[in-house]
Specification:
Transposase_IS30-like; RNaseH-like_sf; DNA recombination; Transposase-Integrase; IS30 family transposase
Amino acid sequence: MENMKYKHLTAEQRYMIEIRLISGHSKKKIAEEVGCNISTIYREISRNSVNGHYISSCAQDRASLRFKALKNRLKFNDTVAKDILDKIKWHWSPEQIVNYFRLQGKAFICHKTVYRWIRIGLLSNVVQFLRRKGRAYKRLSDKNTMRGGKSIHDRPQEANERKELGHWELDTVYSPRGYKTAIVTIVDRKTRLLKAQIVPNRTAHVVSEAIYKLLKFENVKTLTADNGKEFSYHKKIERDLETQLYFADPYCSWQRGTNENTNGLLREFIPKGTDIADVTEDDLHYYTTLINTRPRKVLNWRTAQSCHYSN
């Protein structure tokens, strides 16, 4: 059984899989009866189930569409290359580009093909625009257990579930040691919309004023921050915005993963080691616009901006 060559399943075989699943047969038993490898059964159910249910007619339709797309896949040409290059220069990833055009109803190659074309040189001078992945950053200093602050464990369930607008995560992106200028970043947990402002330093007064300025016209239900001293004016922030601010556990950046990830996106344009005093407000506005108008996989290939302001 393990040495069987992979073959496409027929409609009859898919119907047999459906009936056997309903009867409660194990996947191993189904593979034996259908006459294929057990990995084929796992792959078939995984790829062609709808809402956790395997229906043979739907599975056959999906398989047919994939096969048709494979036969008619696009080859490299000037039009496709221009479509890709135009979006890459806006710092979109190949996966974002592919799904953007597919949502427009346009037949398009897969993102792995885009990477292959870059690797073999068909798409040149684009590496500078591709996202660079580095080691996860963990801040180990400038922390304190926030006196009088509310714990993230008391945050409303609505904020945890990301089902509504207005639950924001706070952080700062800062310059190297010896330089004071920083950026206050605020991200909505549901839509991933980024708001940001340059500040001359990370004192609590300055940061709290920036937070108010960024959010005073937004729907604000909760805020979540780390234990950085820049957020020690949390009572003032709560009064100004008529909201509640919750603090993550020390050294648990994953509890604010939305903001941490978005800061990583911003670092593509402002790498670590950059003196943020050299970044203008126009520069920052441009970078946040690029981030907020990218199609995002986590948003089903919509943009953060369209998700946030269409609700």
